[in-house]
Amino acid sequence: MGSVEQLQCLLFPALISLFLALHVSTTSNISLPGCPDKCGNMPIPYPFGIGASCFRDGFEITCNQSTNPPRVVLWSEQENNIELTKINITSGEAYANNKGISYKCYNGRSFEGHLANFTLKYHRAFLFSNKQNKFIVIGSSAFAYFSAVRVSSELRDYWSGCLSYCLSLNDTTGNGGRCNGSGCCTSTIAAGLDEYHVMWGFEVDFPLEFNPCSYAVLMDENWYKFSIQDLRGFNFYERNHKIGVPVVLDWPSGTPTPHAAMVWRGALTLHVVAIIAVATT
Fold first, then answer.
1. Is the Kinase keyword given for this protein (predicted)?
2. 172 vs 178: CA distance, rounded Å
3. Which of 74, 83, 127, 202 has the largest CB neighbor count within 10 A?
4. pLDDT of the residue at 76
C-alpha cells in the first residue's frame, strides 16, 4: 500500500505538468508540421499557412521577404492581396491594412478627391468585424456614407454613415479623444459585410479655412484617436495612405485545429489516463 501511495506522490506532479502542457497546446499558435511558423517575427498559425498543404482553403499566406520587416500577405488568385499585421486565433480575428481612404479637399475653387472601396470578395473565408470596426468620418462639415451587401441575409442592401461638424478647432472632441460628432464621427456596421463603397453627402459651398479636407474610412475603432492635426491640410491621408489604417477581419466558419495537434493532444490525454489507472490500481 505504501508503495502505491509513494508512486502516486511521484506521479501527480508529473500529471499536473502534462495537463498544463495539454492546455497550452490548445491556446498556442500552432502551424502544421514541416510548415513555416513565422514570417519575419509574425507567427503564422493554422488555418493560415505558407506553402503547399500548409493552410486551409482560403487561408494561404505569402511572405514578402523583399521588405524589412517581411510583409505577411493574404493571397488570392485575383491579385487582390491583403496585408495582415496580426492574427489572433483565440478570437478568430485577423488585422489587415486598409489603404482605401476616401477624401475630398477644397482647393479654393472646387472640390477634388477620391472615393475608395474595400472588398473581401476574393477572400471568401473573411468578413469585416462588426464588433471592432467602425465607419469613421473626419472633417469640420463632412457627411459620408457607404453602401454594402450583406452575405447570407434576407436584408441584403445596407447603408450607413454619419455627419461630423464643428465651427472651430476648439469645438472638437480634442486630441486623443473618441469621435463624438465634433471633428469626427462614427457609424456602426452590420454583421456579414464583405465589401463596401463610400459616397459623400452634401457639399459645403465655402468650407472652413482651417479644414480643407475631409476623410472617410472603415477601420478599427480602438486604433483611431482623434487629432486636431487631422483637420489641417492633407495630414491624415499623407500619414496613413501608404501603409493603410487597421481593419479587423473575422472568419465566421470557426477556427479549425491542425490535425497533427489534435493527434498529439489525443495521445497525451490517453497517456495521462493510463498513468492515472496504473497509479490508482
1. yes
2. 10
3. 74
4. 80
**Residue 81 falls inside a structural domain:** no
> Mean pLDDT over all residues of the chain?
81
> Which pLDDT does position 205 carry in this prediction?
55
- Under 8 Å CB-to-CB from 155, ≥6 apart: which residues? none
Q: Verify that 185 and 241 share a domain, yes or no.
A: yes
Residue 1 has pLDDT above 60, yes or no: no
The answer on 129 and 164 residing in a single domain is yes
Q: What are the cell numbers at 21?
A: 502542457
Q: What domain count does the chain have?
A: 3
Model-level pTM greater than 0.85? no
